[in-house]
């Protein structure tokens, strides 16, 4: 399992951190994982699955 940093997530998804936070709050994006008091990450496979859903929806 790989955890994505905020920087890696932004490169993969191309959304602003604020928009990602809004999607998370609405339940439309994978939830972040609290790694420490000041550190978060996202499970790479969950994000890739989310992206795949978007790709399939366009067909």
UniProtKB/TrEMBL annotation:
Gene3D superfamilies per record: 1.10.238.160
Name of this chain's protein: Transcriptional regulator, AlpA family
């Amino acid at each position: 399992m790989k955890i994505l940093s905020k920087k890696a997530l932004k490169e993969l998804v191309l959304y602003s951190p604020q928009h990602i936070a809004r999607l998370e709050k609405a339940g439309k994006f994978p939830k972040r994982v609290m790694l420490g008091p000041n550190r978060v990450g996202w499970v790479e496979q969950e994000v890739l699955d989310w992206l795949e859903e978007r790709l399939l929806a366009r067909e």
